[in-house]
Amino acid sequence: MRIAVVILNWNGVKFLRQFLPALILYSKDVAEIIVADNASTDESVQFLHANYPDIRIIQNPDNGGFAKGYNVALNQIEADYYILLNSDIEVTENWIMPVISQMEENHSVAACQPKIRSFHEPQKFEYAGAAGGFIDKYGYPFCRGRIFQFIEEDHGQYDDACEVFWATGACMFVKAKLFHKMGGFDEDFFAHMEEIDFCWRLRNNGYRIMYCPLSTVYHIGGGTLPKVSWRKTYLNFRNNFYLLYKNLPEDRLVKVFAVRLLLDGIAAVKFLFSAGFKDFWAVTRAHFSFYRSYRKTMQKRKSLKHGSMAYVYGKNIVSEYYLRGKRTFSQLNKERFYLD
Question: pTM (2 decimals)?
Fold first, then answer.
């Protein structure tokens, strides 16, 4: 079995210095470690050549973001499993094989993630993935262990291996053949939510996404874009529309988009009075960008299978969180998750 740990790096030399030693220590006996560099302008490549000459480096010609960067790199790597790993993650002993073993048990499992905890607050889950990802019926993503900005401490409450809707791109284990069968990530996303789109496409083709609690990694987060950024706001709102339009079943499109137009308008006004004009304009720009790309996105939709709403939360997580005060995943009504 060939396993490749692939780090997509962009100007992350400080993270390579900090986290490569542990990664090599805990991975070298079971996996090949590869760094795919997205045309960094810092000393990342020079650092690797000087200090880790045995690590394979793939130098992408430009910074095409998370989606294109991984697509270009993975097309050059032969393996049975890819482990997509952010450069700002600290791995732990025996972090690989529990996930691989869980995936090997069921051929319908296409992707899986470990437990993601915060590097700076180790007792807590980390925003980008926590204990497995979900979305609500209007496309808002959340996790076991994190809903919006409320992040839970890990007390073992999510130590069960279970099926989830999406696995985080910060540390995603994926079967290589299925990654390529699905056409990889959608490069129009650039960054943010491309892994949710990818997982939904897998689901629409009959595959499953899992969470493995027997493996834990620690994530800094915000290594490429800061956690509060108008650019991130723009990508999240635009890409969420891409995600929904490409993957929703036909009978849900009109209703979902009608509600989202209203909710996004409310969000834009809230940004205007709290975060400032840049975030307000980011939401507006996101909508216009989606409308400009409508025909292209429609063609993509026509080429895809649709239908799976399994593990989608059948209520509005926005109202659950802000109006009903439900801050944790365990407070949500489990019977409201679609299981079709």
Answer: 0.95
